Amino acid sequence: MRYAYLGPAGTFTEAALLGVEGAREAERRPVSSVPVALAAVRAGEVDAAMVPIENSVEGGVTATLDAVATGSELRIVREALVPVSFVLVAAPGTTLADVRTVSTHSHAWAQVRGWMDGHLPGADYVPASSTAAAALSLLPGAAAEPGFEAAVCSPVVVEQHPELEVLAEDIGDNRAAVTRFVLVARPDAPLPPRTGADRTTLVIPLWEDRAGALMEILEQFATRGVNLSRIESRPTGNFLGEYFFSVDVDGHLHDARVADALMGLRRVCPSTRFLGSYPRADHKLATVARHHSDGAFREAAAWVAALQGRGAHRPGAAGAGPA
Amino acid sequence: MRYAYLGPAGTFTEAALLGVEGAREAERRPVSSVPVALAAVRAGEVDAAMVPIENSVEGGVTATLDAVATGSELRIVREALVPVSFVLVAAPGTTLADVRTVSTHSHAWAQVRGWMDGHLPGADYVPASSTAAAALSLLPGAAAEPGFEAAVCSPVVVEQHPELEVLAEDIGDNRAAVTRFVLVARPDAPLPPRTGADRTTLVIPLWEDRAGALMEILEQFATRGVNLSRIESRPTGNFLGEYFFSVDVDGHLHDARVADALMGLRRVCPSTRFLGSYPRADHKLATVARHHSDGAFREAAAWVAALQGRGAHRPGAAGAGPA
Amino acid sequence: MRYAYLGPAGTFTEAALLGVEGAREAERRPVSSVPVALAAVRAGEVDAAMVPIENSVEGGVTATLDAVATGSELRIVREALVPVSFVLVAAPGTTLADVRTVSTHSHAWAQVRGWMDGHLPGADYVPASSTAAAALSLLPGAAAEPGFEAAVCSPVVVEQHPELEVLAEDIGDNRAAVTRFVLVARPDAPLPPRTGADRTTLVIPLWEDRAGALMEILEQFATRGVNLSRIESRPTGNFLGEYFFSVDVDGHLHDARVADALMGLRRVCPSTRFLGSYPRADHKLATVARHHSDGAFREAAAWVAALQGRGAHRPGAAGAGPA
Amino acid sequence: MRYAYLGPAGTFTEAALLGVEGAREAERRPVSSVPVALAAVRAGEVDAAMVPIENSVEGGVTATLDAVATGSELRIVREALVPVSFVLVAAPGTTLADVRTVSTHSHAWAQVRGWMDGHLPGADYVPASSTAAAALSLLPGAAAEPGFEAAVCSPVVVEQHPELEVLAEDIGDNRAAVTRFVLVARPDAPLPPRTGADRTTLVIPLWEDRAGALMEILEQFATRGVNLSRIESRPTGNFLGEYFFSVDVDGHLHDARVADALMGLRRVCPSTRFLGSYPRADHKLATVARHHSDGAFREAAAWVAALQGRGAHRPGAAGAGPA
After folding, report:
1. C113 and C124 share a domain?
2. Are residues D65 and D186 in the same domain?
3. pTM score, whole prediction
4. Where are the annotated coiled coils located (chains A, B, C, D) (predicted)?
5. Tens of pLDDT along C89-135?
6. Is the CB of residue D209 less than 8 Å away from at least one CB of chain A?
7. Pick from D207, D231, D235, D200: which is nearest to D218 by CA?
8. Is A85 in CB contact (< 8 Å) with chain D?
9. Which of A223, A244, A272 sits opposite B219 (nearest CB)?
10. Residue D323, in any domain of the structure
11. How confident is the model at residue D250 (pLDDT cuts 50, 70, 90)?
12. Are residues B71 and B185 in the same domain?
């Protein structure tokens, strides 16, 4: 297997990839951006790419949401949750008192502002293209003068580069912060089997009249008892006020209630895109009311088929009427 | 063919039955009540029964609504609309000035009150078990003294008994009044073929919390674009506030949107009863939005089947995503 | 006080009226029909009329539902529940074996059919304008030969006329049967005070497209947590498929959630008619979620008023935003 | 008046601010981030701050959405739309062939990727904290060696610094791109008067069970005919799957339908936050159905008040019932 991931080595994304069985032994290609990673999947250069999709502090990763929503189809085949923990690193011999300027990715900066205000209130900020890139440029022998004395990065970078000086650990403002990653493959990848604790990801364009149209979409889920665990709006980029929705629902394409909701969605919104069904990383089982169970769908289909003369009449299949 | 109908001969119900091709030559059995007519169908003594179900002035015929909702299953296979027109008849030689007391069925009486207030303001009313029965007891040679001088009945009675004196014609308060009849057979009767202008009749029990539960039922129709042309609540007879709904929807069991709505209903309300799909007497075609058409349901099912690996991938079957 | 009621004396309706404090001493005028009773109220000839509105077996009393829905406005100021119990009576000296023909009101006949099939299987039925009228014509010295040997009526008739022979008691098929009556006054009658266990009755015309329009009406209740305890459709009489709905909701005009729902209804359906708020006969308290309570409505109105600069800013009135 | 804006001078944000009457003569303070700008408003150091809220390509500006949603209350008092147009600039004497590395803000970079792929396919990218900052570091005499040969910025920068070499103009991939800015003040700022073409911005926390809760929120708008022109979900930052929604609706706090929807929202979601009503920059008038008009709300309130005995009975105020 060959994997791409949002690099460089040492990012939280690599940590997520290393959790996939066999990934440690597989080819792992760090790339510079989410679109590049997904382009490598589409071109067949790698089998799958690990990319971040959602962060509990910063929200959806828009580059990922947009890249999977357009272009040739892709399939999410796995998700991973990685706790977000930040360390402040510097070149060997540096102390906290030496730090005037700090660099990191802007998302990471947003998550350590509280610590910075408390411990380095006067520090300037220099944006970097990734947390790891900022840290690596502090290594002895790095190409150029970095223009900053410290960097905020993942502990993984320190594991790989123990020569870095760790000035402070666990400096994130929110200790429960977590990033969710997805492993994205081509649409001919095998559909992961149903486990009972599954998630299905969809892209649903929204057309004019927002309140009514969005309600019509949500009704497709609500009338089948399909719960939404994530909903995010994204601009299509065409003009202000034109959106698509990126949603996760509880359940699997092979759950009757999910399949039925997809049929309803497909009718009212023909360009709905299916991005995959896959096991939840937290193994949380879906709760399903009896009348939304596979059995209830099967029984209802058999009843209608019998009425239409397509199936065998079975005892109890006929409507009892009011008792 | 053998038919039962709500008698005696000369009622509007017989008029409705005579409109069925072949009925003039068939055995026609007048019976004393709707339950008796339907019992004859259930027992196999007749092949079908013509009974009134709805009147544009008086509303639903509760005896019919209740009799088809409970007991062994039945199927409506045809409907008929009969304009309601009333005449005032008397024994030969009677004049309007002779009339002190008038008899007819209470439903008919309600529909001629305006005329009576204008032309016979002091007349007393005597209830009768049917419009025809009242009229026939005025015929020369009738068994007993009737206790009234005039009767309100259908013009059909006069056609069959020209010796009756017609004191006034077309005395109904609402000239557009019409009664709808249904021809009821056993559930093994062939399902009438789809014409594009069809009606489907259902019985739907309603359980606790009315506003929410009724909305859940209506949503099953609304989300599939199935229009309701009639909805009536009836008590189950068990206790105050326990209802079932008798509804007509536009469309046929073989329309995908109707079949899909029935599956949804069956899940949320397992004792829903199907009472038949049959051509509308007014031949009014149903209007169906593109996304509720058979083609849209077929395409959506094929899309989901392809995603599930159950069908062939077809060009255009995949979700396009936001353009 | 002067009261009208659906007579003659001895009906269940008089029993309901006698339950009103002061009614035993008041003038009580039996009249021949519900429209006549309500006409007497409208004309100011009586102060109020007691009429049946709903029966647990037979359903809505259509004469009442229609008479209060049209014409000049009326107000329901009280309700009463009367258990329905039937006795079979005859002229003195008659025995069950003598009975060939039985008379009663058609609604009562429907409720004793099971007993009749078991005890008098061959008996003929003669309709009567009321249960009491049938019974009274069996009294010694009644004007004419009745044409039947027995009558089905309320036990009240026997109390008032002990000379009647009681052939059987408690012959109703459904022992839990109950009829609900309402006391109807003119719209200037004082609004009964709120008790916490109140009912509000409304008439709501329904316009074209039934599923959607009915849902829009129900939403007005559902979004304010107002429960429906009765909903009945009635034809307007104009043409098939044109309805109005007669509904009861839990709560009082002075409950904020009810008043707010009425405002919403009035906008989407301007000819909605208010028929009164009055205490429930069963004293069942309404269950109201915190966010539908009077306090929640008051707080929300104060918040908006403060935003608009119409009210005082109060501590905690401002939106806290996501915590 | 004193204004803060997302600086430095020369950004699209300053262009938006310069469109406010009087702003050219007012004190204009460029600040380094949206949170800093809003903190200056909250602290009373400036009267208002101009910040970007939405971009037709990149979507919501999360820093702004989050900063106005929490902390002490703020009010949006004006919006501005600025077409997004990009130029590629360099130090004097530079040519396109000299460019190896390009710097700009990451949002701007995302919007010129197509042009770069076509004209500078091998160029490296260096992130900058703003488009203007990147450009200004190319000016002769800038503090340090910039580490890149060209920058992507707004044409405003070139107006202010004509010595910059313009290598290419109008290089944005989407010529219709536009950014929406809002002018944010303290909550005691006067509410802008209603114009008929207004927008209202709200923050609505979403609690458990997404599909149902989101539908309950949307219903508050839909049942009053209030259209949503923008809806965005944002994480609260507490844990994955906990959101708030940032929405814009058509209409003004002084429109009855908007005020009524706010009351409904406040009840079902007490921590809803009102962020202001202000004229739309595009002057597009709201379309309002008759039954959602101020007149309809006024009439409905008067009707209920009259029923409650709080207002004068007026001709036509009473429900007409079914005609």
Report:
1. yes
2. yes
3. 0.83
4. none
5. 999 999 999 999 999 988 788 889 889 989 998 899 988 877 888 89
6. yes
7. D231
8. no
9. A223
10. no
11. very high
12. yes
